[in-house]
Write a structure and sequence with these properties.
This protein has about 500 residues and is of the alpha+beta class. The protein folds into 3 domains: about 5-125; about 145-315; about 370-485. It has 18 helices and 10 strands. The chain has helices spanning about 30-40, 95-100, 105-115, 145-150, 155-165, 180-190, 220-230, 250-260, 265-270, 285-295, 335, 355-360, 370-375, 380-385, 405-420, 425-435, 440-460, 470-485, and strands at about 5-15, 20-25, 55-60, 65-75, 85-95, 130-135, 170-175, 200, 215, 235. Strands 1, 2, 3, 4, 5, 6 and 8 form a 7-stranded antiparallel sheet that branches. It has a 3-stranded parallel sheet with strand order 9-7-10, sandwiched between helices.
Length: about 500
């Protein structure tokens, strides 16, 4: 596992200087990187918000080839006593191969660092910091986040943000949902190979010496006009209508608009999970044409046609979208600050789910379905028996009995996905990601084989169990198989 060097930029008095500086670093932080950290480091009164829970997440590259992912918060008072909060920034210096484990998504790596307590504010900062080791990985797309952003501010605004980010040297976001959610959503709308091209800050005041590509702005219209006029920054007001200047007319923003409007986020997730080599933003138009062709080819399997962009029933959630002030953290101190241990489990918490009411009133299973499904012989009982018996050969890596119900839930989700419940594919992917971490060797291979057989049987015997055998079911079956065999050509 790669080591992650770290550094702290804040106000202090050291042997070298007094004031804002790199006050501590781990041994692997070289001089060139330290100078760059000092140049980008935010000092007194740099946060957009002034409260104790204010926070900014930041991302930019370094001369060594590493990438700086940092969190800026207020932390006590300045040593000089001049008043105001001391601004404290902890920087993680990450090699590209480490960020690649997290799908090149700085927000995913930050979630992992918050979860294991690696991001912290020292009462007494040590002169030298120890490098970190950070386990874990992330999926290519946070479909839950994109679903929320599809509800508010909506697919057109998200596609407009993508268009502006591709067209502009710097994009500034004001109004609407919190900037951290919008910027994280924008990152999720780019293939992993392109994400490191987009530096960002979610909560620092605009400063020309910190040339982030994506920034947040306050609601002060005079400040917005000043930044746009003096620095040629594209300022987007999400409280207004999307500007015609950045209408999503190019191929890649059109792909994002189509996918978000259709609600087929699993399509985007499956495409981004595939490696694309040395892809850059210059190659996105060509990739977009390929994805549009695949998207249109499978549209009939999801209740539409190539030319039909009418939202499905679950897209009506946008009519009940949360207001801007409802996008908040429910935990004391906020999940952003990392103050509460329970809040560290998610970087973005406290959203009202606009689809919850729709799901609550969705049609329930008919009484005869369980009997009908039994005719297809679901794998859960056989697998649970093997997984729960640690002495049964040849599966020496069997799981403890407490997790046996996972297999029954896999049965349900595979059936529901092939029956056409679109959300079931994402739920199936999440459950399989968690479950497969505890399986290895022969048992993992057997579980995959069992569910491959189960999915094919559901397709073949669909008419016997009230699943009409039509082209839609074939597409749904391929989606399911893609969960168990990611990256395979089906």
């Amino acid at each position: 596992m790669d080591l992650i060097d770290q550094a702290i930029f804040t106000s202090g008095e050291t042997d070298r200087a007094s004031g804002y500086q790199v006050v501590a670093a781990s041994p692997g932080v070289g001089e060139a990187d330290a100078r760059e950290l000092a140049a980008w480091g935010p000092s007194h009164d740099s946060l957009l918000n002034s409260g104790p829970d204010a926070v900014s997440f930041n991302f930019h590259s370094l001369p060594s080839g590493r990438l700086c992912i940092s969190r800026t918060t207020p932390a006590g008072f300045e040593y000089s006593g001049r008043g105001g909060a001391r601004i404290y920034t902890q920087c993680l210096l990450v090699w590209p191969q480490t960020l690649a484990r997290f799908a090149n998504n700085p927000f995913a790596l930050l979630r992992a660092a918050l979860a294991n307590g690696s991001l912290r504010v020292y009462d007494e900062i040590p002169r030298q910091l120890a490098p970190l080791r950070l386990a874990g990985r992330a999926k290519a797309v946070d479909t839950a986040l994109l679903a929320r952003l599809s509800a508010s501010p909506g697919p057109e605004w998200i596609a407009t943000l993508v268009q502006a980010a591709l067209d502009s040297a710097t994009v500034a976001i004001a109004g609407g949902p919190p900037a951290e959610h919008l910027i994280a959503g924008l990152i999720n709308c780019l293939p992993p190979e392109c994400r490191t091209e987009f530096s960002f800050s979610t909560g620092l005041k605009f400063c020309s010496r910190r040339p982030f590509r994506i920034v947040a702005l306050s609601d002060d219209r005079e400040e917005q006009r000043r930044v746009a006029r003096l620095y040629q920054v594209a300022v987007l007001h999400l409280s207004a209508d999307p500007p015609d200047e950045f209408a999503p007319i190019e191929a890649w923003p059109r792909v994002i608009h189509r996918v978000l409007k259709s609600g087929r986020l699993a399509f985007l997730a499956s495409q981004f999970a595939r490696p694309h080599g040395d892809l850059s933003t210059e190659d996105l138009s060509a990739l977009a044409l390929q994805l549009l062709e695949e998207f249109d080819a499978t549209a009939i399997g999801h209740g539409g046609s190539a030319a039909d962009e009418t939202p499905r029933a679950d897209d009506t959630a946008s009519e009940n979208a949360p207001e801007a002030d409802e996008w908040r953290d429910d935990e004391p101190g906020g999940a952003m600050s990392g103050a509460a241990p329970s809040a560290r489990l998610r970087l973005f918490g406290g959203f009202r789910d606009p689809n919850a009411e729709l799901r609550a009133h969705a049609p329930q299973h008919r009484p005869g379905e369980a009997i009908a499904r039994a005719a297809v012989d679901p794998p859960s009982k056989r697998l649970a028996a093997k997984a729960c018996n640690p002495t049964a050969a040849p599966h020496e890596d069997a799981r403890p009995p407490a997790v046996a119900p996972d297999f029954a839930r896999l049965d349900e989700l595979v059936f529901e996905a092939i029956a056409g419940r679109h959300e079931a594919v994402d739920e199936l992917g999440d459950l399989w990601d968690e479950l497969s971490q505890h399986l290895s060797g022969p048992l993992l291979a057997e579980v995959r084989e069992e569910y491959l057989r189960y999915a094919l049987l559901l397709w073949q015997r669909g008419p016997e169990i009230d699943l009409p055998r039509d082209p839609n079911r074939a597409v749904y079956s391929l989606d399911v198989l893609g969960v168990f065999f990611p990256g395979a050509t089906l």
